[in-house]
Design a protein that fits this description.
Keywords: Signal. Strand 5 and strand 6 form a beta hairpin. This protein folds into five domains: 108 residues, Immunoglobulin-like (Sandwich); 93 residues, Immunoglobulin-like (Sandwich), CATH 2.60.40; 87 residues, Immunoglobulin-like (Sandwich), CATH 2.60.40.2550; 85 residues, Immunoglobulin-like, CATH 2.60.40.10; 85 residues, Immunoglobulin-like (Sandwich), CATH 2.60.40.10. By secondary structure, the chain is an all-beta fold. Helix content is 3%, strand content 53%. It is elongated, with a radius of gyration of 51 Å.
Length: 487
């Protein structure tokens, strides 16, 4: 085989001077056979051995493809080498140009051949292999997977498709629909790069890869008990939260080995699972199972206590009149599993105090509501989540009462005998008591209107002060002005 080179300027000059002959004229020309048949499929480097008439004056042969010179030869036996590797698969028109010793050029008629340097690309099932970093429902697998590879384009030219991992062939398909088998048990969990190598009848090969995940692990699962872990009730569901790259199918709840409830999660999320009605109080074995869409299962089993009874309790304080920030709790509490939560509040959760620990005592701010009638609420839960709600109507009073002297000696008066001192006291919700103070000390208390006191000056010094102090029913206090007396 001989290869000769010519300058680009020479090729350009030759191209400008070509006069194409028709196929009939070409048959009368010096080239009687191009050495390549119309419609031929060619690839890589093609060797053309054209036939030139013995008496023809031919000093040079040129091979043109896609209207550009690609090879040439200068002497018999004529042979031209055409490197097609830079051409994407397509139909290409080719012809020869014969040049005599005087530079006259005679082209042949054009023939079209098919350049085919690439085997059809084999595709994995739709949606496979979208990421090598994140597993998902459409690229996670377990067990033995049987699927078909789909060659694009000229599928009838395919001779075989090999499925490999890391350069090791694991299966070969030799006929449509090109089925292959992948046994995931031969690989550790995690990402696996599968490669499909297609070989056609010309020996061309192409490769296509998919990143898939081997998944033999059930969903990540969290079981949330109604109130305290290990305690359950027919009145309160268990919340089961599950997630899985292959998506979660369902969750199941078993008690003492018997299926109590099941829920479909449709991908991921939280499902509420209930005990069967009529489940008896007492110790039991609880099992939660979650399944992904591949059939992998996660199972959690533990001992629990079933408690279906609400707590019994009384609310404290018992007073109907409240002010400021006060303490509240429960008394006479009875429950099989014990308290777990207490909240005390006004109306719609205003002024709330809550706790999750003993001694089950909280502080509630009555200033969160206006003075007046309200509902004081106690919510107490046991460890199984059973809720008891206590309600009581109360009056909130954060306003001090009014108090002043009514009947009494004038300020700075001289007293020589016993006198009567009367108080005038008022409050929206009522006066609990009024006290008479002498020199700052309580000497008398009256809890009935008209709040009357007897003051004996002989019990005190030559000069002393007198003052009134009133309490309303909520415990708010108010002092009157002071009066000074002498004797």
């Amino acid at each position: 085989m001989r290869h000769r080179t010519v300058a680009l300027s020479t090729l350009t000059t030759l191209a400008a001077g070509l006069v194409f002959a028709s196929p009939a004229q070409a048959a009368d020309g010096p080239v009687t056979d191009l050495g390549i048949a119309p419609g031929a499929r060619v690839n890589r480097t093609v060797e053309l051995r054209p036939t030139v008439a013995a008496e023809a004056d031919v000093a040079q042969l040129q091979l043109w493809a896609n209207n550009a010179p690609v090879a040439y030869d200068y002497a018999a036996p004529w042979s031209l080498s055409w490197n097609t590797r830079g051409i994407i698969d397509q139909d290409v028109p080719v012809y020869l140009v014969a040049v005599d010793k005087d530079g006259n050029k005679t082209p042949t008629g054009k023939v079209t051949v098919r350049v085919d340097n690439y085997a059809p690309l084999a595709s994995f099932p739709q949606g496979w292999g979208s990421s090598q970093q994140y597993p998902a429902s459409n690229n996670s697998f377990t067990g033995i997977q049987r699927f078909s590879l789909t060659p694009a384009g000229d599928a009838d030219t395919v001779r075989w498709i090999q499925l490999s991992v890391g350069g090791q062939v694991i299966d070969t398909a030799t006929a449509a629909p090109w089925p292959v088998t992948w046994d995931t048990s031969a690989f550790p969990e995690g990402v696996v790069k599968l490669t499909a190598t297609t070989t056609d009848d010309l020996g061309n090969t192409t490769q296509n890869s998919a990143w898939l995940w081997v998944d033999r692990t059930g969903p990540a699962t969290t079981v949330r008990f109604p109130q305290v872990a290990g305690y359950v009730s027919v009145h309160q569901p268990l919340a089961v939260e599950a997630s899985d790259p292959a998506t979660v199918d369902r969750a199941e709840l078993y008690l003492n080995g018997v299926l109590a409830d099941t829920a479909t999660l449709n991908g991921a999320g939280v499902a509420d699972l209930d005990l069967a009605a009529g489940t008896a109080n007492g110790p039991a074995t609880l099992t939660v199972k979650t399944y992904d869409h591949l059939g992998n299962v996660t199972e959690q089993t533990r001992s629990v206590v079933v408690d279906n009874d609400k707590p019994v309790a009384a609310g404290a304080p018992g007073s109907s009149y409240l002010r400021g920030t006060f303490g509240a709790g429960v008394s006479n509490f009875r429950d099989a599993t014990g308290a777990a939560y207490l909240a005390v509040y006004f109306d719609d959760f205003r002024g709330t105090g809550f706790t999750e620990r003993s001694p089950w005592y909280v502080h509630v701010n009555s200033r969160a509501v206006a003075d007046g009638r309200h509902t004081l609420a106690w919510d107490v839960k046991d460890k199984a989540g059973n809720l008891t709600q206590l309600r009581r109507s109360v009056y909130v009073d954060n306003t001090a009462p009014a108090v002043r002297f009514g009947t009494a000696p004038k300020n700075r008066a001289k007293l020589t005998r016993k006198v009567t001192v009367k108080a005038i006291a008022a409050d929206r919700f009522g006066i609990a008591r009024v006290q008479l103070l002498v020199n700052g000390k309580v000497v008398a208390t009256d809890s009935k209107a008209a709040f009357s006191f007897t003051l004996n000056p002989k019990k005190f010094g030559k000069k002393f002060t007198v003052q009134l102090r009133a309490y309303d029913r909520a415990g708010n206090v108010k002092y009157s002005t002071k009066r000074t007396y002498r004797r």
